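User: I'm curious whether this sequence folds into something compact or stays loose and floppy. Could you predict its structure so I can see for myself?
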Amino acid sequence: MNKPFYITTTLPYVNSYPHIGFAMELVRADVLARYKTSQGFDVFSNTGTDEHGIKIYDSAREAGLSPQEFADRVSEKFRLLFNVLDIRKETHFIRTTDPKHIASAQAFWKIVEANGYIYKKHYAIRYCKGCELEKTDSELDGKGRCTFHPDRDLEMIEEENYFFQFSAFQKQLLDFYTSRPDFVIPDFRYNEIKAFVERGLQDFSISRLASKMPWGVPVPGDSGHVMYVWFDALINYISTLGWPDDVERYTHYWIHGNPVQYCGKDNLRQQSAMWQAMLMAANCSPTRHVIINGFLQIDGQKMSKSLGNVISPYDLVATYGEDATRYFVLRDFQDFEDTDVTHEKLYESYNAHLANGLGNLVSRIMKMAETHLTEHPTLHTDPYGDEFRNFMDSFQLGKAIDMLWVQINELDEKIARTQPFILVKTEPESAREIIRELVVELYSLAIRLEPFMPKTARAIQESVKVNKKPDSLFLRRD
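Assistant: Here's the prediction. I'll summarize afterward.
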């Protein structure tokens, strides 16, 4: 059996329809899944929807629907992104309302409770409904609001809940971070979470009273409580593998598959500290890498469904196509830093780099090949170089795709320098040899491009194999 590789996105809330921020995360995970598959790995890729919690409960009530009806409707919009963004069909889509996930979450609770890390107490907290998290003074702005959701006031919650003994895992987490300095990527996020844990950990609530908020996974043995949404949702990363029943699958992909989790920077604490402590408490192996994306911003403000300043991936694909949209989120958006997004920048990028860049290059080379070559030359089957692999293996997808556009520019320069379309009139064999070289390099480019822009890459490869200029890949937009 091939070596396993596991990769997952976070699960977005279904309180609203998808925006380009989640599409970015989904596409990046898909690129790595496709790349690893091309390298011979047995890949398990995961995504889905997070469907419990107060935000979904309130949104459903506002829409006049039951929580399940509301979740069904919005979850389908996320599932349809598979077709819209050309996500590999093998990717698993999990919903936290799936019966198998609910059973897995309850089994996880029982193990953690049996190990002595769950207890019950009365408490009062300041709570951000946007994050669905308790907030301390250091996490508030000058107006006493959450820095991630400055548009809404905090709520005060006072009740008896179950708690997870997060504080018991400070040393274990710090030892784990020390043993794996590349656990969180990029390194400045690793330093951030390490500093957070070094300051000391507070136990956190993992249940809500069902009488106040009934939309959640029932707590085993206590029908008066449902699981806190974060505790329930994080378990999807192993419930998707059939844990705890499917031991073989869990062992293959989670323990031996170097699991990689993509998330936004507002998920740093949950993914790289809370979830890792939960895994430790349940005697499960930790994640191998947590990759932290920056925020997408419009005019310097975080793009957010709650703020309403979002760009829809459906709209982008309708305007530019799926591969152009994939290109935007891979090359125009920073790997790890925040990115300011505008429609004007995307429009300019499309024309400059796709229509006038890649599309024009393919058209020029294949027109010369169709006219002057009788058959395609011998093609390379392994075009990946060490530098490209290093970028891909270190999750620097922006730098990897940048290499492809360096190659595009070099091919353009080679055409301008050698001018085979003129040389063919006086030195036809020399011109044909240059055209053969251009075709081979174009095919190599298409192989490397396939994880990023699969439809375009396949069109280029087919064009080379039949020695025929394709239809315009990217029509210029004026």
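Summary: The longest strand covers residues 118-128. The mean pLDDT is 92.
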